[in-house]
Give the backbone structure.
Amino acid sequence: MRGMKLVFGKEVRETLRDRRSVMSALLFGPLMGPVLFALMISTITKMESERAEQALELPVIGAEYAPGLVAHLKRQGVEIQDPPDDPEAVVRDETATVVLEIPSDFGERFETNDPATVKMTFDASRRDARTIIERVKRMVQGYGNLVGVMRLQVRGIDPGITRAILIEEHDLSTPESRGALLLAMLPYFLMIAVFMGGMYLAIDATAGERERQSLEPLMINPVPRWQIMGGKLLATAVFSSASLVITLLAFSQSMKLIPADTLGISLSLGLREGVFLFFVVVPVAFLAASLQNVISAFARTFREAQTYLSMLLLLPMIPSLALFVVPVKGQLWMMAIPIMGQNLIIEKVLRVESVDAVSVAVSMASTMLAALVLAMVAARIYGSERLAVSS
Amino acid sequence: MIEVQDLVRHFGDVKAVDGVSFSAPNGSITGLLGPNGAGKTTTLRMLYSLLKPAHGSIRIDGHDPVQDPQSVRRAIGVLPDSRGLYKRLSTRENIEYFGRLQGLDEDTLRANADDIINKLDLHDIEHRRTEGFSQGQRVKVAIARAMVHQPQNVLLDEPTNGLDVMSTRAMREFCRELKRSGRCVLFSSHIMQEVAALCDHIVVIAHGKVTAEGTKEELMERTGQSTLEDAFVAAIGSEEGLMA
């Protein structure tokens, strides 16, 4: 194992001396996700809260026909605006989101207990319009219900009689689970960080070493080929793992910046969860390292390896995307699929659900097994004459 | 001591090496001379266990590269055809890396590295990273790292390729010193003058076969030619690719 240790040490040392690759492996790769994520979530949060708190401006046509309703709206914080000439035009040119129109016969129908009609003009397809439309509707209906209840009470009838069914909502989502919905992307960012962390080293240590013609001299040393390969593979995996740690740290920090309480969701990644997730995902680092070393060994040039390994970055997207689009209930056999299993476990951890030990064991074992098989393939390639003889 | 018997290696239809036999004794410089593509590099690659021979046998200090590659690799120092260095490591780090891979302990490694840096006069570039080194500096470092474990057998594949006059002279001197210390030096070249100036024993290879073998004088005698150049041309069967 001495040879493996030596190769490992040299690869790590040489890579650390290359500032550009260190930056991309340990800075850009792992931080891209958390930064993007924090930006995205805080933008959504800000937009949501702004919309909820904004004073509602509502142009009303014929306000004089329904002073009661208008007073009610004002009490609810609505800023009543002067009537526009053409309600459709102002909605179209987006100067108003909703225009309320009260017909002149409103008071008359109100008196005679006929349903009085009001007209709301809006464009439901407009972004951001939905919340405002809902708010106006709710307020107008709320006034209507209030008047209805009073009418019944005046006639000595229990208002409850009109409500045959009462829905009692019992939402089981917790602040954490609502947050996890947004966090469905986190597994992908973790996987990308793992794959990017060791990518440069894997290319440089195999295809790069071959292209620079230092692989042949290296192989003339009395060290078994599989140990040379093993050293390079371990160095790749260590960089992948380092990238994973940095990503986890960055995520736990960036989540603290998010004003999550305004969204009614809570996101957090504590030390315990972080350490647990590290151990869950670290087999993927070995899988990625083996896969990248196999591919780099097949590639004839540095460039070729770079092209292949960049395409490989799409691979961890597949399970993440699949789960994002079609959320399925985690079943044990899914845990056996590398990357998919880790995805499911990460999601559970973020939803603060308990993760059973069997799932974790199956996921880790199957991923490590896949990594081992690929490492053996890499060792075989290293053992072949084709690899060393570059010219 | 290197002994080669009836070595054969084909790549598809190309008979790269087609029955090569020779021996290279200790305390002497043996030259493999032949035009480009004659099979020199392939022969050397089989000697240093990178390629497996299809047929024939090799013994290096009694070890067989096919059966026991690790013992062979400990017994040889090789300047292969590919001689890339690690550009982000210094000269000394390049040398030490190979010394450790050869299994030297730290004390021996330090002493041997100092020694080879002295011999090849690498002091001024000892702690510089090898990126941007001249061709001559690169070859020197490549030789230094191959020699750090002080091997009994030294295989040099076209060592003077791309070197200037001064570097070439230094290289020849280094080979002579290896010979004086009783080592077996095997040297491949396509440059006739190079081999004639340095080698005690010359093996002429063409089209994967040994076409003549012996000292300079023996070669002239055997081919019935009066000059060395004519002797080589006669041995190879054409003038192609033989001149420097």
In short: Chain B has a mean pLDDT of 91.
